[in-house]
Design brief:
heterodimer, A: 6-stranded mixed sheet, 5-stranded mixed sheet, 8 helices, about 25% strand
Chain lengths: ~300, ~300
């Protein structure tokens, strides 16, 4: 089983040979994966790779056709675990819906608060504390549309966090936002991770992952590779994951992934030596990054494998 | 002042006023969810569908509320079930189920070769001829709907706003949808003989839309929609009495006039909002990150 072990403690999330189907009989994604408590992991891969499917599996919205998913040792069933907080893609939000910041965040307590519409004293205290913590206390009575992209993301983070989850799942939190907002969101997630919350997010933004996340899982209907971005993001792994040619280089200490120039398709195998004079060769020593293609099956006995 | 007090000396007006105000409030309450769930035509459709049940009640000499209730509940559940399959949207499901049921009602009426006053009330509403039974049914249904909305407030809001995430928070979205369908059917049946098949859609949709124009908060929208619905019923009854116009029509026209005013006030306000002073919108890049790297000069 592939294990992401950067965090401390026992595995929080286990995909134990979990295969998911969208009801058409075909397996959309199959994963053998362990995520340690305290992890901060990005799931990357092309559209249709199964990133969101794995998140839905963790939420209990999609049940595996074989294998199982466990969170904190408990099998994920139809009833979602209170340990998991979920932040959907902002693109899916109905921004014309009449709802204020306070009303949205209180929805996170739907299972824990009393039967009446109005919040109890303790709910108000939790709401105020959460808004304060995320720096949006003064926006409590504002409509959700009347906020900046970063503030909107904080509102939906607050809704997920107010139930005090151990694990936070985010579906493409950096999609469609500008650079400053993206950095703000990733910085906030780093802070939350520092407070002990495990974070798993999906993204198409490889450079943001390379810059901010300690661990990455490359996915294309199975786990193609895992590990720190500097080890995983090699032209070979990226080609296997995205079926596209990409170049990887370092610039002023940052790992940069870019589309290969058009002529590159004729000489794809030169990927690892094709770097500008002022750029260093990518750090991809043998044995790191665990490209799953080595063994013909995802994560089969990689160097960092843990017995499942 | 006599124009305010005089109508109250008539029992039919007092009955009608209670019925119209309560029906307006009930339709306003349920209308918020109908509008926000983008099911605006369900009120129109369900009232037509229930007509099929009303005809069956007439043919079998059973109470309208029994056969109409069963018919309405089945239609609402069928719409919910069909619209949950992703390939058929709610709008198409409403169209198919309700017009099919309505057509069945028309077919049964045509077999009877008679068009009675019962159907006339169902089609056009007759707020001045409400019976004690109508008032009792309306009162009980209003209480039941209000209790359901209070107790399921958060669940209904969550499922209407964000059904997928609601499920991930342990809200049983299927159960909430079914409960909402039944509550909606009950509200339509209770108000149908008062407002009529043809005008009920306006009573459901208009107060909610007026409230939406006035506020960005869900809680305030719900309260305001109930007040606007009740107010239109109340005001519409006075207009009906003094202008001698059918009450269903005056209630609907009052609601339409309130909408027109709310819409125009909203437009006027957004135009009057002052623009920021020149230069305030364009924040220079250098203010954030120091010297610009690229410059045209």
């Amino acid at each position: 089983m592939v294990a992401v072990t950067q965090g401390s403690g026992s595995p929080l999330v286990v995909f134990d040979g979990a295969a998911f189907s969208h009801g058409d009989g075909r397996v959309a994604v199959e994963a053998d994966l362990e995520l340690a408590a305290g992890c901060f992991v990005g799931l990357v891969g092309p559209s249709g790779a199964g990133k969101t499917t794995l998140l839905r599996g963790l939420l209990g919205q999609l049940r595996p056709v074989r294998g199982e998913v466990r969170v904190a040792g408990e099998k994920v069933g139809r009833r979602p675990s209170g340990r998991v907080g979920y932040v959907p893609q902002l693109e899916t939000v109905d921004w014309n819906f009449p709802v204020t910041v306070g009303e949205v965040v209180l929805l996170g307590l739907v299972r824990d608060s009393g039967p009446w519409p109005w919040p109890r004293g303790q709910d108000k205290t939790r709401l105020d504390g959460m808004l304060e913590r995320l720096g949006i206390a003064e926006l409590r009575d504002r409509h959700i549309r009347a906020l900046s992209g970063g503030q909107q993301q904080r509102v939906f983070l607050a809704r997920a966090l107010i139930r005090r989850p151990d694990l936070l799942l985010l579906d493409e939190p950096t999609a469609g936002v500008d650079v400053r907002t993206r950095q703000e969101i990733l910085g906030l997630l780093q802070e939350l991770n520092g407070d002990g919350i495990s974070v798993v997010l999906t993204t198409h933004d490889l450079n943001a992952v390379a810059a901010s996340l300690p661990e990455v899982v490359c996915l294309n209907r199975r786990v193609m590779a895992f590990g720190p971005p500097a080890e995983v993001f090699t032209p070979e792994v990226l080609r296997a994951t995205f079926s596209s040619e990409m170049v990887v280089f370092r610039h002023e200490g940052a790992l940069v992934v870019a589309d290969a120039p058009a002529h590159f398709a004729d000489h794809p195998h030169h990927a690892h030596v094709h770097h500008g004079a002022d750029h260093s060769v990518p750090a991809a020593p043998a044995g790191h990054g665990v490209p799953a293609t080595q063994a013909g099956r995802p994560g089969a006995h990689p160097p960092r494998e843990r017995a499942g | 002042m006599t124009w305010l007090t005089e109508p109250w000396s008539f029992a039919f007006f007092r009955h009608g006023m209670v019925a119209a105000t309560l029906a307006g409030a009930l339709a306003g309450m349920i209308g918020v969810y109908v509008v926000l769930r983008r099911m605006s035509y369900i009120g129109h459709g369900l009232s037509h569908a229930i007509l099929g049940g009303a005809v069956v009640g007439y043919v079998t000499k059973t109470s309208f509320y029994v056969t109409g209730g069963i018919w309405g509940a089945l239609s609402a559940l069928l719409i919910t079930g069909v619209s949950r399959t992703r390939r058929v949207g709610a709008d198409a499901a409403i169209g198919i189920v309700t017009t099919g049921s309505y057509a069945l009602g028309i077919a049964l009426i045509s077999r009877q070769h008679r068009f009675t006053r019962d159907f006339e009330a169902a089609f056009f509403g007759n707020v001045l001829a409400v019976t004690n039974t109508d008032l009792v049914v309306l009162g009980v249904v209003s209480l039941a709907v209000a209790a359901t909305v209070l107790l399921l407030y958060k669940q209904l809001l969550f499922v209407s706003f964000d059904p997928e995430v609601a499920a991930s928070h342990g809200v049983r979205t299927g159960v909430v949808d079914v409960v909402f369908s039944l509550v909606l059917a009950a509200a339509i049946i209770a108000t149908m003989r008062i407002l009529g098949v043809t005008l009920i859609a306006a009573a459901v949709v208009t107060p909610a839309v007026v409230a939406r124009l006035a506020t960005d908060s869900f809680g305030r929208m719900l309260g305001l929609s109930v007040v606007v619905g009740a107010g239109c019923g109340f005001g519409g009854m006075y207009v009906s009495y003094h202008a001698d116009i059918a009450s269903g029509a005056t209630i609907t026209l009052t609601a339409t006039a309130v909408f027109a005013v709310a819409y125009l006030v909203g437009r006027f306000r957004s135009r009057r909002r002052p623009l920021p002073p020149a230069g305030e919108l364009a924040e220079p890049a250098a203010a954030v990150g120091g010297e610009p790297v690229l410059s045209s000069r």
